[in-house]
Amino acid sequence: MVTMDRFRPGAWRLWLAVVVTCALLRTLGQLLGAPFLGYEIPYLIITCSAPLMILAGVRLHRPARPGGWITLAVGQAAYAAGDVIFSFDVWSTGNMAEPTPGDMFYLSSYVLTGAAVLTFIRRRTPGWNLATAVDALVVALSSGLLTWVFLVEPVASDSTLPMAAKLTEASYPILDLMLLILAVRLVLGAGARTPALYLLFGYLGVMFAADTGYAVVGLLGGENTTEPFTGGLWVVSLGLIAACALHPSMRDFDTPSHTATPDATPARLTVLTCAVLMVPGLQFVLHTIGKDLNVPLASAACTVMFLLVMARMAGLVAAQRRAADTDGLTGISNRRHFEETLASECRRAARAGYGIGLLMIDIDHFKKINDTYGHPAGDRVLSEVARRLSSGNRAGLLLARYGGEEFIALIPHVGAGELPAIAERNRLAVAELPFAATDQTLITVTASVGAASAPGHLADPAELLRAADQALYAAKAAGRNRAVVAPTVHTPATAHG
Questions:
Q1: Which CDD domains does this entry report, sorted A to Z (predicted)?
Q2: Which range is least confidently modeled, 125-129, 226-230, 328-332, 412-416?
């Protein structure tokens, strides 16, 4: 028996073959002087089929959250309605003056498509990603200035156009710019780099190029609908968005990403460089051809972009510093950062005279957890232990993952008499409540704790670590799930030069 599953892998390739054929018919038909319907029908086939192909992709691949795809299909249906109305007007009356009845559908299509893309972005990257938002804003400022100079301002200053036509024609480049910003935000954000992502980005990029070409041709010659290459680009863009939904990778397209956004890739830096250089380049070109650009406008754009890029670089340095100091699994400090902090804290304690405490915390029988429930369960336990130890401790405590299933805590400003209660509180934080090894399985996890302290003038990193490690060994030898406090360290720090 032949099932639909058999056709899933090749559906998007077959669709793209149809798109290429229709794009060629649309372009060559107009170039060769075919009747209007002769080259417009291939275009209408694709624009009317695109929303149906998106819905077919949802049915074929059944994404977990189809809301964004449904919104995208509705947006493309609105675009198809605008195309049908516009084509009928041109065929029946030859009237191409804006605004047309189809403009309402076109403009609503942009809004719906933007809402769908924004839904994908928010799902792929939960939370607010400030770094990528700044990058998109840099691109938006430079592109927005070009859009204003070449597309919006000429329309706004044209005294022959009625106000309704001005508002309609100015809306398209502004909405195109919105889609461009969302495209940059989508590609520069976190998430899997799947074929569906590149197909969607291709749709947004080609649509932006086609709309910009349409507007530029209209401003230069006033014959937008006679431009065959623009029509071919529209066919390709609509084909790409439908292919995105038909591709099997759409199923996991908006799966949330738990990885950090790539910050220093060559592609990202290239995009920022081009965006920043675009405005001074525009000033130079217009000066060369004898046209003056609004100097305050360009200067303000350059200043804001420079400040944004500087803020971005500062954020990049801070992010790299955090990454170097942080354990990737648990999100707490790593061993290198802990040892550096311990050494500097001991020096401060020696000068100021306050005591320092150290806890070594080791999860009991951790290998058994991995062997029984798998390494993903072990990772969940490690992350939850880190969370409990972080949330249940005093201010100023530095918690780190010291290695494997071992954690370590530095406690400044602590006396030897306080340490047993702190050590016991950390042991109970691990043992009191069960852990979710899997979504259906709860297990009991315990930890052994070794504690050591030293007065400030005797605080020495090596001695504190040695004493805490010996206390931890004693806790495990005594049966585990207990806290043992080592005698106060009395070895002078100078003895370990």
A1: GGDEF
A2: 125-129
